[in-house]
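Entry 12.
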Amino acid sequence: MSPSVAAVQQSAVHSPTPPARLRVARVLLIIAAVGAVGAAVGQIQVVFDAGGATKVVETWRLYGFVVFAGLFALLAVRPRGNLTVWLLVITNKLALTVTGLAYQAHGGIADTDAIITWDGGLTVLLLAAFALSRPRAGQSAA
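Predicted 3D structure (tokens):
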């Protein structure tokens, strides 16, 4: 039985992602996951030291680091996996970066440099990993 025309056309348009590109994407995602774990570990003392006015916010931030470490690890294991997870993590980091830039332009708001540096860097890293993990269009499936 011969393959369907649609399957042949699909394989001609989208070849598999080259293994080297997937390895680089995975390394970038592992870096992101390890960074998020490190941020979570560093946040533990911040939670213990936080006063009543900021304890909940600092705890929320700690749990966010843990969740993102898990999401980055999930993507490292299956970079061609769930597109929705990619969209969520990239959108979140991009939104934080844009918010940091807006806060910096406003002036007088603490930690904008940290947001722009860390979340902006993660946005670039995630976009690179995403691009590397996608199949190349227009190559023959050889």
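Annotation: Residues 31 and 72 are 9 Å apart (CA to CA). Residues 5-13 have pLDDT under 50 and may be disordered.
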